[in-house]
From TrEMBL:
InterPro entries: Cupredoxin. It comes from Shewanella electrodiphila. This is Methylamine utilization protein.
Length: 187
């Protein structure tokens, strides 16, 4: 399935501390575009910056009321942006106080080894150290405990690892308004 978060966490505590010092991927961006969060699901490493960018010509009021990072801020029209650092691992659900159908998710992980599956349901990890990992597969609509499926893997793998997750998925919400009106004057 596409858009599943996959991440690897070393099971060895000593190596887990060493891997936190490894280079990380560049800061991530979440855009508000066509009154939607883009991407719908974002994954990033704990302790790094997430940039919110408004590409719409209207104001958005982005918020999260639960999870390890609660926030609320307005992003005015014309490409305004806001940077936040996420210093705790966990799942953050987002919405827009103005456009209540908008929803998005951020998963903050405590490892530099993460990715999101492509349209073929594949994710590739290159040049990862040869140790044992807990492999987690996460999606906000995955109907499992904490929306996660986990198993142990040891690298190096001699062939492509195929995982079948036997769990139901909730429907992904539609990201569009039922009514087409704006009430932004004076907001």
């Amino acid at each position: 399935m596409a858009n599943m978060v996959v991440y690897l966490t070393p099971t060895n505590e000593e190596y887990k501390q060493q891997q936190l010092k490894m280079p990380v991927k560049k800061p991530v961006e979440v855009h508000q575009e066509n009154k939607q969060f883009s991407p719908y699901i974002t994954v990033m490493q704990k302790g790094y910056q997430l940039k919110f960018v408004n590409d719409d010509d209207i104001t958005h009021h982005i918020y999260s009321a639960s999870g390890p990072k609660r926030f609320s801020f307005k992003l005015r029209k014309d490409s305004s942006q806001k940077d936040l650092v996420f210093d705790q691992a966990g799942h953050i659900s987002m919405g827009c106080n103005i456009h209540d159908w908008m929803s998005g998710h951020v998963l903050v992980v405590d490892t530099p080894f993460f990715g999101v599956t492509n349209n073929l349901g594949m994710v590739e990890f290159n040049s990862i150290p040869e140790v044992q990992y807990r492999l987690d597969i996460w999606h906000p609509q995955l109907q499992t405990n904490n929306n996660t499926y986990s198993q142990t893997v040891t690298t190096p793998l001699l062939e492509t690892l195929t995982i079948q997750v036997n769990a139901s998925m909730d429907e992904i919400p539609t990201q569009q308004s039922l009514d087409d009106f704006e009430f932004l004057e004076g907001y």
